Amino acid sequence: MAVFGPDGESIGKLRDVVAGLRADRLPPRVLGVVVELATRRRIFVPMLRVTSIEPGAVTLSTGSVNLRHFHQRPNEIRVISELLDAQVVIEATETRAVVEDVAMEPTRTRDWVLSRVAVRERVGRFGRRGPVRVIRWEDARGPGSVDLSTEPQGAQQLITVYEGMRAADVAVALRELPTKRRYEVADALDDERLADVIEELPDDDQKDLLGHLDDERAADILEAMNPDDAADLLAELSELDKNRLLELMEPEESEPVKRLLEYSSDTAGGLMTPEPVVLTHDATIAEALARVRNPDLTPALASMVFVTRPPTATPTGRYLGCVHLQRLLREPPFDLVAGALDAELPKLSPTASLSEVTRHFATYNLVCAPVVDEGEHLLGAVTVDDVLDHLLPEGWRENGLWEATTDA
Question: Count of domains in the chain?
Answer without folding.
Answer: 3
